[in-house]
Amino acid sequence: DADVTQTPRNRITKTGKRIMLECSQTKGHDRMYWYRQDPGLGLQLIYYSFDVKDINKGEISDGYSVSRQAQAKFSLSLESAIPNQTALYFCATSATGVLQPQHFGDGTRLSIL
Amino acid sequence: EDQVTQSPEALRLQEGESSSLNCSYTVSGLRGLFWYRQDPGKGPEFLFTLYSAGEEKEKERLKATLTKKESFLHITAPKPEDSATYLCAVYSQGGSEKLVFGKGTKLTVNP
Question: Looking at A74-78, B36-40, B90-94, B107-111, which range is the least confident one?
């Protein structure tokens, strides 16, 4: 089983719909992250959380919200989806400490029509 | 603003043909540089962390090196299974606790 699991793996929806992407991990890490990846661009950080009570905005948080339900669960919501949010979304985790590597899930491919 | 530039964007090699990928960075104090491999339909997979100029790390046919301005990922005698996109990312002293990623180099190794 994967250490970082994202659901769904693929989603097609319409403009204006509310979407939730879920991430769960069995690595026991405190830190969790949400990224989006667009063709020809690097991974961009949307939100990150260093523990259950800590939520921080990344570089592209507008139009997104997150919830850290437990140490192992971190969900990303699009309250009212728009077509330019079509992208590949990745969840990642890392251990607490200096310069710990991030470990990624296999992504959710989201298409907004 | 921290920046990471990877070159080339794409590289095609014949099996056994060694080469290098480049990652140049502009940051306000490098704390660490990471290399990842990403296969189609998968998330990035961690390969190496480099902390200071002169450091080298090796794994199978891959060797990563670091200078004060750039990092190289050397691939020796590559095989088709080395085909993937290779991503470079940095942590800087001036930034928040976040990685800044390059756009990646797509490597194709033909048999």
Answer: B90-94
